[in-house]
Design brief:
The protein is α/β, with parallel strands linked by helices. It contains five helices and seven strands. The protein has one domain: P-loop containing nucleotide triphosphate hydrolases (Rossmann fold). The radius of gyration is 16 Å and the shape is globular.
């Protein structure tokens, strides 16, 4: 039977002083606007806890979804990026909030979501460069794989991705790859705690 997490609560931070204390492991979910972050989070958890929208740039906060597997941890939904229709003031506000978030010490892993139909666009490349300077490692998660014939997945993945760390091909619509990603994240939280990461409450 596939592993399931228990959803416990959510903390929504629009301002720096609303960020929760860094007491348990945190796994961030990042990606271009409309890449399917909310849909994937909902599929991972098995219930609708993150609001998805067809309007790019809608998320203007950092949402901390507290989950319990073997240990409690946060899935952290960061604002989408690469959407130019929002104002410069809004983008600067996002940047200040995200900078304050990354200054904390609880992040154990970043999940970089990339639309499997398009691969690494310019905004994705910019995010990869930013993530390369963060302390926590990054894993690439390709989304919307149901839009591509499964027979093309292997070739397409090889054309996009030559990293040494694992990459996951997923679909929130069909559930493809979601169980594998969930098990990987559960194990990652376990290992982060075993290696003197943030302590469990």
């Amino acid at each position: 039977m596939p592993l399931r997490w228990k959803y416990e609560s959510v903390v929504t931070a629009f301002l720096q002083n609303q960020l929760p204390p860094p007491e348990i492991p945190e796994i961030t979910v990042l990606g271009r606007s409309n890449v399917g972050k909310s849909s994937l989070i909902n599929r991972l958890v098995g219930q609708k806890i993150a609001r998805s929208s067809g309007t790019p740039g809608k998320t203007r906060s950092i949402n901390f979804f507290r989950l319990a597997g073997k240990h409690p941890f946060y899935l952290v939904d960061l604002p989408g990026y690469g959407y130019s229709a929002v104002s410069q003031e809004t983008r600067q506000g996002w940047k200040r909030l995200v900078d304050a978030y990354t200054a904390r010490s609880a992040t154990v892993l970043h999940l970089h979501l990339v639309d499997f139909r398009h691969g690494f666009l310019k905004a994705d490349q910019q995010l990869r460069e930013w993530l390369a300077h963060q302390e926590a490692p990054t894993v690439t998660v390709f989304t919307k794989a149901d839009k591509i014939s499964k027979g093309k997945w292997k070739t397409l993945l090889a054309s996009y991705y030559k990293g040494q760390e694992p990459a996951f091909v997923t679909s929130a619509e069909s559930g493809a790859g979601v169980d594998e990603l969930r098990l990987f994240l559960e194990d990652y939280v376990d290992r982060s705690l075993a290696s003197d990461g943030p302590e469990e409450e």
